[in-house]
Specification:
alpha/beta; Nitrilase/N-carbamoyl-D-aminoacid amidohydrolase; Rossmann fold; 2 domains; six-stranded mixed β-sheet; 16 helices; 21 strands; 19% strand
Amino acid sequence: MKITLHQTRNTIADFDGILGTIKETITPSSEGVHVFPELYLCGYPLQDLVLQKPFISAYIAHQKKLVAWLKKNITQENLCVLFGGLEYDLSKTGMPISIRNVIYKWESGSGFHAIYTKRLLPNYDIFDEKKYFTSGHEPKFLEVQGKKLGLLICEDMWASAFYDIDPVSDMFKDCEKESLDAIVNLSASPYILGKHQKRIDRAKYISNLFNCPFYYVNKVGGEDEILFDGASFVVAGDNIIAQAPLYEKCDIEIESIPPGSYSVVKPGNKDLSWEDLSWEDLFNSRLDFTHSPSKLHTWTDQDCAEIFKSLTFGFQEYATKNGFNKFTVALSGGVDSALVLALIKLSLTPDQQLEAIYMPSIHSSPLSYDLCLDICENLSVPVKTLPIKFLHSTAKNLFTSSYSDSFEGLTDENVQSRLRGMLLYTRSNQTGSMVVNTSNKSELAVGYSTQYGDSVGAISLLGDLYKSEVYRLCEYINKTYNQVIPEKIITREPTAELREGQVDTDSLPAYEILDGILEGLLNYRYTKKDLEDLGFSKDDVETTFHLYRRNEYKRYQFCPIIKISSKSFGFGYRIPLSKNTDFYLK
């Protein structure tokens, strides 16, 4: 028997596209078991879409079309197809009483039926499945073509102390006397750096436990800020039998793997324990404790290659799904805007256009202008210079003639940034281009950006990269793409150039220190005292906590951020705006 995993790439609720992919994939000559990802028939994550009556009606009509096509065209007896999808119980008015995340089975002899309901419904970080779905209650074994398969949906393989059930253990108890030929997991598992190896480790553990192969199929796609990397695989014992690439639609076809054809390691003797392989281990901080003070682990070239691919893929998914083919980036002569420009340019397709705008103020240095021209020349990106000097002067004269209040300090600095935002969106209106944000995670965490100024943009490529990681990715891109980012951009001292002689360290700890403190804070693992115990100075910790706690309102209104780490700002980060924040400094 062959098992084929279909690593698919479709848009949420594109029912015609989803059905079209099935028609292209499942043919009258198909045989064996074909497996599609979790919730493939509708897409994931659906959020409140799953509750809206127009969506429900369209989904049910789509399901009926699928079943009619299968009955007419796919009649061979040696074929079984497994689809991830929704199963609704509806009221008399057509509104959902309950919704289940299920596996549907198609066989010509028995038809189209839901055979398994997801049991573990994650409710952490970006997940809120308990809000929408009703969980299943029992394991499921599928007898097909003389083989016995155990079925799981995504989170079902990630049981931990946080759950009161363990689908894998329940499956093991139910089949102790009957061997399984394979375990199949239908997933829609979001990407974070380092997660794929943890999936592999978890699957190997389960494969060894059951002494059978583990088949894992995952979807591909960028859904706003959430990435799905695919990377489907098959493991048998400690052996990786097959591995699909990241972010590419593809199929894995594997003949049955007989017991005894691979080595099995008894789980109790393995270096990794079941607890080490739980989902919460994904949220450990990325601090290197061999240093004092601790600092972020430095990305390897392989990490950088994966992040580069993730960011460019996520950008293209967001742009194309939302109908944009023109992009505008504000260049400053600094490292963040240079990296954003490089990422977009290196991902462009022939039908897309990119332009840069440099908007100097009276405080901008000649070096910034030269560096903007250099990177645009290196990348063959057209650039226009739109000075804000006269706009700034006009705004200042208007306010000083109308109000007696001071037009100095932050007032003067922020108006420059907001004037730039106005110019960017004026250009966007002229051409229909998408403005791309250039802020990084460090700046966003401490509010080192101007609301409706440099915080503008439709999507953020760097909002989940600390400043030190921005530098590391620039180094990798230069190493890989022939030094396209001028070295001086990377080595110059960071500055917003909003006042004479300004540098970032006037207001912030050095980024290597700041990023280490933020990583501890944003992963919810450390208090102020914990971070001081890790070697960070009391002053740096207090400064960081103070800036973090007073800038929630900026983060609340920020654009979507492409998520690459376990804890990013955005959909998985929900903190009330109105609260007492004194506890941060205790």
